[in-house]
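lol ok so funny story. i was supposed to be doing the assay writeup but got distracted and ended up predicting the structure for this chain instead. priorities right. anyway since i did it might as well share w the group, maybe its usefull for someone
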Amino acid sequence: MSTKGPEGGRLAGVRAAVTGASSGIGEATARALAAEGARVALLARRTDLLEDIAADIGPSATAYQVDVTDAAAVRDTVAQVAEDLGGIDVLVNNAGVGSMSLAADADLDEWHTMVDVNLHGVLHVSHAALPHLVAAARGERGIADLVTISSASGRRVPKATSNVYAATKHAVGAFCEALRLELGPQQVRVGIIEPGFVVTDMTSDRDFGELEALEASDVADSIVFMVTRPRRHGINEMLMRAVLVVPGLSARR
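and the output, tada:
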């Protein structure tokens, strides 16, 4: 589905970068930001998917191939994005992976991958983008936004198999709170979104039971809401959960 952003949208003139933009929440976010008039840099590893999505969105979107676990590559890519767009007003840290197993049965490589992507990836991209966000906040918009997609597991560990996944999300929450304290005086808003179950490639093999799972577009809508608030209004944390479907009540308003 093509995304044609209005020239006079709420994010007209805004320059945004989204990681993990080749599918799921990242793709939905890139489309939602572009639909509001933003110029969007799509960052991910899968070049073919990125280029197809960018082409579908239109001239306001550009694809950049990068692995967020590679700090040097991230630094160079973010610098290139800032040069191409003339700055970065909004960063969305979305790239993430998840693997669930009991600790006694766990594959250490899967644990390391979650730490590398979910935590180190956020650190690499945020560190590279911070100077550009601070500079953008001094511009006409008067504010910049750093939004990170965490998880409801970053608030409370839902089950034993969530061990390292939840640990990475708790760490991301602490990092973002520290960034909020540091960057608030420089007019850079820092927000974190904590979705529960969301239908994405990462959750395609899971049984949601009676929960009506969130869609990637629901999270994208929340990101747009976050970054379109007035300058005085910062949403620091947003918890999103699916609702329980009660038989006989689903059709009620």
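Helices lie at 24-35, 47-57, 71-85, 108-137, 163-183, 216-227. Residues 1-5, 249-253 have pLDDT under 50 and may be disordered.
back to the writeup now i swear
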